[in-house]
């Protein structure tokens, strides 16, 4: 047992070093031991289970660098019990993440060696992330035992590279931030009407016609690089090729867009959605999506969109009218949409792909495979509920897995601490929500970043730390809702991102009251010195601080 | 005269190179000659008037670098009449900008040499900026004659370095962008309650106590560097030391803050505004502001705030109560505020400083010097008008110069093309506005960036290009209000900022319609290739494009 004076000394020492308000997202269980340790320079990770994979070794290198780069230049190692390493025991050899992968972990912070146990390498990655967040900048760390696992299996963000193009480096940086927030699915809305940057080898004309320029493309090699980069960080990359609407640039040469006609003059005008009546349409999709399946391997899911299908162009086209006449089983244009989806999904099934679709596919009663994931995206209010609440009840009531993005459209911005709006949405708050959750029918949540007003200049600052509010909602227990506690951790997590090279924006400003009431000084919060920013992360928290939601 | 085939060849050539939709802010008069020229590699600026100053030479170097760095690596010089240089004739030796400085210029784009005439070096700087915006990336330029001058003398932005700290490099970059928008006043709200980063030599304890950390300060040397940097770009730097409210950190050791008391128990609590009843208060202000006057020289104006003065603390303080009893001419706490301002402004007058104040000083009837500038900032609506309309009528009706910032608080953000909200505010739209403008009583406009949610991570992307909407309102004629034209120029100006290293955010996304109607291709708009961004500036403009305000 240490004597009291040592304890007091340690308390002062710790207070003067980097604060750690807690891990974000907050772990399921954490029990501190009251001890304080220090990492030794000799610190190394060691795989002690039977499964020492390159993925694990890569994570060891990454996190050792992250942890030790934060050390203050003048920080002499405090005289504490030293931790000389971390033993990591992974008990299974799962290498590909799915919706049923075990992501749980245990982390024992103790001397002389830390201990991590995880069923899969993916759980081990999260243990390392948690550990990295607990180490202060002077390399001291509190003894603790953490037992953790995510509430939801799918914790995603969506990026849109059609409306603006992101270079590969921006996407990698976004994946880094996702991993730091323990998010695990990058829904890559790679093409849309505005541009077609996917550089196909089998259909090269699509990006030649549809990319902003020959430089604004994602080659197959670049995509494979991104997929590999993400996989090493526990992030799946699910591509979206939206059909039959949201198509234009890139598709023109393939003869699959519907020719629209002026209803008064009968003259041809522009082009609309994919033409569901042409076999060529399915031939093109089959060729394209087979390649996509291969390029994004090992990911089995493809998102094939299905949202906002416009019917006017179909209705104006005489060839479609006569096709409908010849196919009386397809009763109308809604039926034509269903006909399209049915053939598309059959095609995907034949290729061995699973699929995610926007909610319209479900709403229209298209026959879908049991492992289909339905993404609920429609905003707005209807009756006494939000539309997403009604929709989630229907989708999960029908036994389908759902991903909820409707209340998490983070491309929308508002002045102030708008992360609170997202953080406060409880995703199981709908009729039958608790049962749906326990049956695994709420696959998870997704923070969407449509890119009308976002490109590489502001992706990082717009997305982070705001998306981490959704990350915590997707990972932590339903009871983790205290805003003051979340704000404190979100603030520190944002400071941490700056030290890791990600240009996350501030979430607020500091209170001036701390000095008056003898609370912690400004210098005791967020000591990270960020070269080039000078951003001080200048928030201050103390008992008299008036939080934005209390004003 | 050129033959027709040459003309056609040139037309095609020009269409394929960087588009130039027009200068931002739009000049007062521009008459194109129909000729197209090319800048030769030997191009140099030359001062031909009697006044060849270091400031002018510095601008020559800067703009030659800016113009030639944009040249495409593979762009062979087109076979056009070559411009070999630019003669710049400055007719007066004014070196310090004030509210009455002549900023006008003439720019003649013609071969073999361009010609610039300006009354002052400041007008010449704007001629060079205009010229740099007209040169395409292949170094071709249309012949034109531009006669230009600003509508308003004060075209400002306000930055706040108290709520978050900006490093000097961020501030310089902000000044660069201001100069590109022909803005000319940086209102530097350098200190406030949250932190006191101004590092005084005469009162060193203020930043020792009040800065976030010893690193988060602006030394006198750093400030002089910024002032010099700004002056070279035609930007005045006006510091604000807000009093008697908005003070806290940094002032504690000086014995000038009012001790507040619990009205029930009589116990001392925290500290409030400056105590107007102490001679020490004026001694401190005199010492501080004399230094500030010197550090920011040659600028004669100091902004001394005066907004949002809280009275509760004064009311709770028995020493102030007895002082009021001894000074019956000061009738109440409003009178006490006026008493403070009267003494402060007399002190400034004695030091030879001019002053800008927030509108409360005027509203409270404080006696002020004729050259005082009143900044109108209060938002909201009253009766059938915006409050700023009522206030502008009052301030200018009383014969005072005004700066309007109320409708230009650009720290507020909203989803979408919110620059339109600012662009659409006509500042002379108040009772007596036209007369006030013609009498010079609308000194100008100011785009404010309070920094609760801004630091170095997002200052550039939040401020630009949005603040350029205010810049055009402040510079161009009242009739320049076409949103489609403004959006096109704003988009290109933003792309230009990227090439100049400023991280300006996108203002929207492109339309897919251009390819269909035979309009310019995406590649013909905004060809700037921006290393590191990949940001394509992917907007597209064509006759069928549906602008956000038309949807």
TrEMBL record, chains A, B:
GO CC annotation, single: membrane
Glycoside hydrolase family 20 catalytic domain: residues covered: 152-477
Reaction(s) the record says it catalyses: Hydrolysis of terminal non-reducing N-acetyl-D-hexosamine residues in N-acetyl-beta-D-hexosaminides
Pfam families per record: Glyco_hydro_20 (PF00728), Glycohydro_20b2 (PF14845)
SUPFAM superfamilies, per the entry: (Trans)glycosidases, beta-N-acetylhexosaminidase-like domain
InterPro entries with a match to the protein in the record: Beta_hexosaminidase_sua/sub, GH, Glyco_hydro_20_cat, Hex-like_dom2, HEX_eukaryotic_N
Record key words, sorted: Glycoprotein, Glycosidase, Hydrolase, Signal
GO BP annotations listed: carbohydrate metabolic process; ganglioside catabolic process; glycosaminoglycan metabolic process
Beta-hexosaminidase eukaryotic type N-terminal domain boundaries: 23-134
GO MF annotations in UniProt: beta-N-acetylhexosaminidase activity
Catalytic machinery residues: 308 (proton donor)
Signal peptide region: 1-22
Assigned EC number: 3.2.1.52
Family note: Belongs to the glycosyl hydrolase 20 family.
PANTHER family linked: BETA-HEXOSAMINIDASE, BETA-HEXOSAMINIDASE A
Protein name listed in UniProt: Beta-hexosaminidase
């Amino acid at each position: 047992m240490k004597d009291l004076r040592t304890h007091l000394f340690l308390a002062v020492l710790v207070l003067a070093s980097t604060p750690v308000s807690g891990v974000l997202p907050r772990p399921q269980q954490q029990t501190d031991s009251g001890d304080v340790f220090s990492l030794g320079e000799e610190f190394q990770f060691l795989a002690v289970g039977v499964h020492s994979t390159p993925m694990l070794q890569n994570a060891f290198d990454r996190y050792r660098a992250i942890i030790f780069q934060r050390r203050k230049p003048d920080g002499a190692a405090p005289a504490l019990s030293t931790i000389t390493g971390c033993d990591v025991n992974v008990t299974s050899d799962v290498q590909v993440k799915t919706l049923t992968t075990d992501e749980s972990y245990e982390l024992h912070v103790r001397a002389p060696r830390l201990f991590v146990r995880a069923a899969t390498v993916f759980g081990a990655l999260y243990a390392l992330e948690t550990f990295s967040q607990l180490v202060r900048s002077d390399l001291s760390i509190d003894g603790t035992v953490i037992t953790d696992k995510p509430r939801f299996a799918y914790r995603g963000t969506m990026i849109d590279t059609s409306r603006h193009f992101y270079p590969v480096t921006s996407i990698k940086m976004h994946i880094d931030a996702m991993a730091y927030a323990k998010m695990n699915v990058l829904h890559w809305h790679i093409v849309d009407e505005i541009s077609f940057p996917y550089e196909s080898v089998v259909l090269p004309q699509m990006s030649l016609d549809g990319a902003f320029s020959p430089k604004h493309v994602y080659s197959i090699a670049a995509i494979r690089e991104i997929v590999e980069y993400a996989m090493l960080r526990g992030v799946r990359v699910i591509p979206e090729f939206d059909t039959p609407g949201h198509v234009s640039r890139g598709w023109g040469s393939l003869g699959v867009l519907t020719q629209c006609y002026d209803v008064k003059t009968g003259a041809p005008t522009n082009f609309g959605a994919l033409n569901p009546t042409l076999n060529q349409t399915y031939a093109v999709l089959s060729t394209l999506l087979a390649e996509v399946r291969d390029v994004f391997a090992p990911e089995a899911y493809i998102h094939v969109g299905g949202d906002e299908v416009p019917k006017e162009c179909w209705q104006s086209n005489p060839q479609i009218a006569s096709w409908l006449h010849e196919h009386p089983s397809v009763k109308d244009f809604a039926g034509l949409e269903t006909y399209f989806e049915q053939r598309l999904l059959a095609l995907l099934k034949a290729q061995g792909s699973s699929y995610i679709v926007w909610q319209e596919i479900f709403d229209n009663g298209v026959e879908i495979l049991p492992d289909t994931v339905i993404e609920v995206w429609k905003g707005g209010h209807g009756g006494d509920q939000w539309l997403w609440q009604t929709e989630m009840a229907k989708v999960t009531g029908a036994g389908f897995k759902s991903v909820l993005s409707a209340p998490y459209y983070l491309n929308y911005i508002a002045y102030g601490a708008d992360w609170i709006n997202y953080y406060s949405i409880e995703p199981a708050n709908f009729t039958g929500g608790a049962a749906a959750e326990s049956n695994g029918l709420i696959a998870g949540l997704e923070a969407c970043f449509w890119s009308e007003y976002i490109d590489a200049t502001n992706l990082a600052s717009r997305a982070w730390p705001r998306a981490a509010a959704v990350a915590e909602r997707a990972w932590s227990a339903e009871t983790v809702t205290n805003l003051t506690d979340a704000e404190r951790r979100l603030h520190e997590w944002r400071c941490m991102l700056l030290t890791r090279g990600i240009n996350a924006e501030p979430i607020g400003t500091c209170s001036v009251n701390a000095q008056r009431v003898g609370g912690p000084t400004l210098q005791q919060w967020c000591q990270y010195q960020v070269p080039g920013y000078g951003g001080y992360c200048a928030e201050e928290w103390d008992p008299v601080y008036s939080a934005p939601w209390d004003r």
